């Protein structure tokens, strides 16, 4: 199965699909967010190369259950997930920083002799190229797995899919969205993103995504209330990124220890804990139907497969 060769430049092993001047767009998003009530900063600020490294530290904490839950699910159900793929498929992973989990899925697809053209999407060029090198080495001799990177945001990926769709070697497109990333936004916003990808694919694609369904408050606080620790460092890294985007030191970390009036909220990080009913509703809102699920033994995390078909398909 040949790779797609759109008219985009390469940066290392990755295709640069960025559509616009990232710095100007980011500065505008920061200023817009600070005028909202409650105030907010774009989550994308946190996920540069440094942010990805800090996140991996967070995932090593035993109290941070999402990573261990995903690992268990993949160990038990990777072959079942691979069963849902056609003989020839395109797999596009959204927001990948660390590709260890992806390697398990690709290995299962390889074992079933599925032809897969895999694209890893990320905004961090160094992390993306480093991860792709490891993954490419793992599958360099595979007759069925091809690996490429896409440097850009989710919105950039939508435009890339739209412009490249005519040259895809197969109509069987699956998007992979792990790490509960889908719940980093509100349900309506996540559904809107799903709809954008569905439309870019001509109305026919599928998603496999991870979702955190834990409702145990003490367990959730144990995973996220780590000040000082990696989660605090991720947020602080976002402030450094905001300063770089704006062009001067607006946020001084020494001034953010943090004291605010009781009840004041500044949103920077959202990690939703959705019920199965909310997941089904979000899927339907985006034009998809929930078809498969693979759930952790404690029922606190799952992988879900949703499908959309064009009219008459």
From TrEMBL:
One Gene Ontology molecular-function label: methyltransferase activity
Keywords (A to Z) from UniProt: Methyltransferase, S-adenosyl-L-methionine, Transferase
Positions of the Histidine-specific methyltransferase SAM-dependent domain: 28-259
Domain of life: Eukaryota
InterPro entries registered for this protein in UniProt: EgtD_Methyltrsf_superfamily, MeTrfase_dom, MeTrfase_EgtD-like, SAM-dependent_MTases_sf, SAM_MeTrfase_EasF-type_put
GO biological process, one term: methylation
Family listed: Belongs to the methyltransferase superfamily.
Protein name according to UniProt: Putative duf323-domain-containing protein
